[in-house]
Design goal:
Order of helices and strands: HHHHHHHHHHHHHH
CATH architecture: Orthogonal Bundle
CATH class: Mainly Alpha
Largest sheet: none
Number of domains: 1
Radius of gyration: 22 Å
Number of strands: 0
Distance between the termini: 53 Å
Number of helices: 14
Strand content: under 5%
Helix content: over 70%
């Protein structure tokens, strides 16, 4: 067991583990809502469109994390505003804002003389997390998880049945903007650890894996958080032993967990006996109709 404990005797590995767990749990719990609303592409867009905010913050000597958050928040608000009246479909709005913001970041980056200070934000540097970074990541995790706990029922209802939510007085667009703001916060902390390119995997993969294992959202959140924690430990350990990228190792562990869950679910479906209900061609199956109505209600 020494090979498992050895990496975490170093202070920088302890910081990396704590940061990875905080980011992984936050992204996994938030990712359940993202997967439920089929918003996976938005997470990827927010991760990439932080680039102009990072470059502007670098040019003026501001905090890179705050610059990335500002750009991600602006992207989320633009996407929500463009698609709120359904005049533009959401995927089209994401594509337009995503490419525009990313192109702006590349243009601004061409004005800088050095790419070195931005490289760790693009590809992640979990091993370089400081104590100040941990306070920032922990604060963001607390804010995101607290908001999700307070507005859990509202977020779930507006995702499953927005029409009913509007009837009882809930504003679906406000809940959507809230989710986009929380996504912006989570994306910035994810960039700190695994970078722009791999942040979306932490948002989607643990949540998608949990969706294969449970149909209830609370259980999905718990399973996603546990999976993110286990993959963070495994990824950091493997990266230390094999001397590879820590962020990539964490995400690959998440991918391996998803593939294992998918294989197990497929095997269980093949082994499960299927009950056939005889249905006549002339008469409707009243039992099946009653079950369908009760399921809808």
């Amino acid at each position: 067991m020494d090979w498992l404990i050895e990496p975490f005797r170093h202070v920088f590995m302890q910081h990396a583990l704590l940061a990875a767990v905080l980011v992984g749990v936050t992204c996994a719990v938030l990712g359940v809502h993202v997967v439920q609303r089929r918003m996976a592409f938005i997470g990827d867009a927010l991760a990439h469109t932080t680039l102009p905010g990072l470059v502007i913050a670098h040019l003026f000597g501001w905090s890179l994390s705050l610059g990335g958050f500002g750009a991600a928040l602006a992207t989320g608000l633009l996407i929500g505003w463009a698609s709120r009246r359904h005049a533009v479909k959401e995927d089209a709005a994401i594509g337009v804002v995503f490419t525009g913001m990313f192109a702006l970041g590349v243009l601004l980056m061409s004005r800088t003389r050095s790419y070195r200070d931005l490289t760790h934000m693009l590809f992640g540097n979990v091993l370089g997390v400081t104590t100040e970074d941990l306070w920032f990541i922990g604060g963001v995790a607390a804010v995101v998880l607290l908001c999700l706990a307070i507005f859990h029922k509202e977020l779930e209802l507006t995702a499953c049945d927005p029409t009913h939510a509007e009837v009882i007085g809930l504003r679906s667009d406000r809940m959507r903007f809230l989710l986009l703001g929380l996504l912006a916060l989570a994306v910035v902390t994810g960039i700190q650890t695994v970078g722009v390119i791999l942040t979306n995997a932490l948002l989607i993969t643990p949540a998608a894996t949990a969706a294969l294992l449970s149909d209830r959202m609370p259980w999905r959140m718990l399973l996603g958080a546990l999976l993110a924690t286990a993959c963070s430990v495994a990824g950091l350990t493997l990266s230390y032993v094999a001397e590879t990228s820590s962020g990539a190792a964490i995400v690959l562990c998440c991918t391996a967990a998803f593939m294992a869950a998918y294989a197990a679910r497929s095997a269980s479906h093949r082994l499960r006996p299927t009950a056939s209900i005889p249905v006549t061609k002339d008469k409707p199956n009243k039992v099946a109709m009653a079950e369908e109505v009760s399921r809808c209600n």
